[in-house]
Amino acid sequence: MFRFLHPLLLLPFLAVGAALAADLPFDSARFDTMNKEGRPILVTIHADWCPTCKAQEPILSELLKTPELQGITAFRVDFDGQKDAVTRFKAQYQSTLIVFKGGKEVGRSTGDTRKESIASLLKLAL
Fold it and tell me: 16-55 as b/e, with b when 16 or more CB fall inside 10 Å?
């Protein structure tokens, strides 16, 4: 029937993909190595069904692209599928954001969707 899709029809899907590109799937060994090196890290405890997580995605994507915050590596923990990591980070809820600096946790928030306060949290990792 249809041999091609109009490029504009793909824009909503590309926008979602761009929001997700800022996060790496959580890998314990990679996280441990980067944390030992003292790199700035963000861990997001995320659930696909969570409306707050969905609201955080574009905010985080935008902030992590700014020159000031580009050095932060973001890892995404699947709240439902990575229970060992959820337990490791002592996260009781999805939509939890945790930042690390110098190998130590320096801040966390849960359920925050305000750009200014998320930016302040991320800056703690620098």
Answer: eeebeebbeebeeeebeebbeeebbbbbbbbbeebebbbe
Per-domain residue ranges of the chain: 22-123
76 in Cβ contact with 85 (< 8 Å): no
Residue pLDDT, tens place only, 47-97 = 999 999 999 999 999 999 999 999 999 999 999 999 999 999 999 999 999
Q: What is the 3-state secondary structure (H, E, C) of the chain?
A: CCCCCCHHHHHHHHHHHHHHCCEEECCHHHHHHHHHCCCCEEEEEECCCCHHHHHHHHHHHHHHCCCCCCCCEEEEEECCCCHHHHHHCCCCCCCEEEEEECCEEEEEEECCCCHHHHHHHHHCCC
Q: Domain 22-123 belongs to what topology?
A: Glutaredoxin (3.40.30)
Alpha carbon distance 8, 101 (integer Å): 41
